């Protein structure tokens, strides 16, 4: 048993929340089981796996009793397969062009409330894995599950900053999901019929400020709304009293980049900012330089920057561009909640 090799992505405080959530849900508290035994891979493959959520003991079985058993809503097996079929169709060729093989491990019967990406370890296999527990949660739409899948791809394709596993870190995987992956997948006609939440009002405002082109604006709104549909799942996993929202951004400013899972509010902020970044989808995020393919102040962008609640820009990237105007992304009526001056340091 090599639990020490498992990538620890939660602080003691977060661990406390997870344990609290588990206690409320009257489900098991054992969270230290080795990853290798439930995921079906060899030990060498699965140490340092990355995930969508911090480790948790929430389980949503396909059928059955209990507080998290599948309720009305959530995805059917067919809807789950539709999403992963699109991911394969869109990203299989992209990864092949990099000399890699996309390996999507479908584990619909697995009740785990999470999703995973595995380090390549010198191979060309870009492996991601999707248990059925998370897509079975009633709040998760097909668009939302696409965002989960894009997050896992982001660990492989999101570039810098990377975490200790060598894969893109958590915040960066979220940034990649909304900036690149969701736009590609939602542009595919076969994804037009995915289930989705109603357009988020803040998304409509923010996307209108970034995109004049109607098609780009619609893609932006859809990507932001996909992120919003995960808010409830993020809340459940962290046992938060309130659901995070786009108009209550995290005012935290980190002294150094946080590679672990940011707080749910911070993650929503990343979904939003990545969606309003106007860098083209065709420019990949830089493997070494986090400015490449991204929106940074050093390149003159005032919107779409990685939020400072998890990201510390390297020297030079965070410099204010001469004459740059600090633009807001939100309508005046939402500004009342955003008066903390430190807030805008993250934009
Ligand atoms: Zn992750």
Indicate the overall shape.
Answer: globular
Task: Provide the number of structural domains.
Answer: 1
Q: What string, H for helix and E for strand, traces the elements in order?
A: HHHEHEEEHHHHHHH
Question: Could you report the average pLDDT, rounded to the nearest whole number?
Answer: 80
Structural class: mainly alpha
Multimeric state: single chain
Rg of Cα set: 19 Å
Low-confidence stretches: 1-46, 320-347
Number of strands: 4
Helical residues, percent? 25-40%
Distance between the termini: 43 Å
Counting DSSP H or I runs of 4 or more residues, the number of helices is 11
Order of strands in the sheet with most strands: 1-3-4-2
- What ligand species are in this complex? zinc ion
* Beta content: 5-15%
**Main sheet properties:** 4 strands, mixed
Task: Describe this structure in a few short sentences.
This protein is mainly alpha-helical. The chain is built from 11 helices and 4 strands; from the N terminus they run H-H-H-E-H-E-E-E-H-H-H-H-H-H-H. Helix content is 37%, strand content 5%.
